[in-house]
Design brief:
This protein has one domain. Helix content is 35%, strand content 19%.
């Protein structure tokens, strides 16, 4: 399949991981590079909506891992708890966020999974207008 977007990264989510007080995305970039030789592009710290049990009000980190670092990430992602965004959507966790977060970080993956028949209807994000 031809990659129209010419992406050189894989989007990832690190659920339940907050940045240290006073730190920004550079901290996470340096953390992955210094500890695991993984090059990332930091995107945003996001917070789940309240009312979803233990997952509600949780802080997650969203970042892109450059393709030349994927092998190094694979070695540590399960230990750290990092999840590929496509798997995060497949599990329905993208529904824990507001619509801006969904549109910016997860919609494309939901559309791909729906097209491929890999996403259950109960795991589709519903905007306020769809509810």
């Amino acid at each position: 399949m031809y990659n129209i977007l010419k992406e050189d990264y894989v989007r990832c989510v690190w659920p339940g991981e907050s940045l240290p007080l006073g730190e920004d995305g550079h901290f996470l970039i340096n953390f992955f590079k210094d500890n695991y030789d993984v090059d990332i592009e930091y995107l945003e710290q996001i917070k789940t909506l309240p009312g979803h049990g233990p997952k509600g009000g949780r802080i997650d980190q969203v970042f892109n891992v450059y393709l030349d670092s994927i092998d190094n990430l694979e070695k540590v992602k399960d230990k750290l708890g990092v999840v590929y965004a496509k798997d995060y959507v497949r599990e329905g966790n993208h529904r824990l966020f507001n619509e801006r977060i969904f549109q910016n970080f997860f919609k494309r993956f939901q559309d791909e999974l729906l097209k491929d028949g890999e996403l259950a209807e109960e795991n589709v994000f519903k905007s306020l207008w769809d509810r």
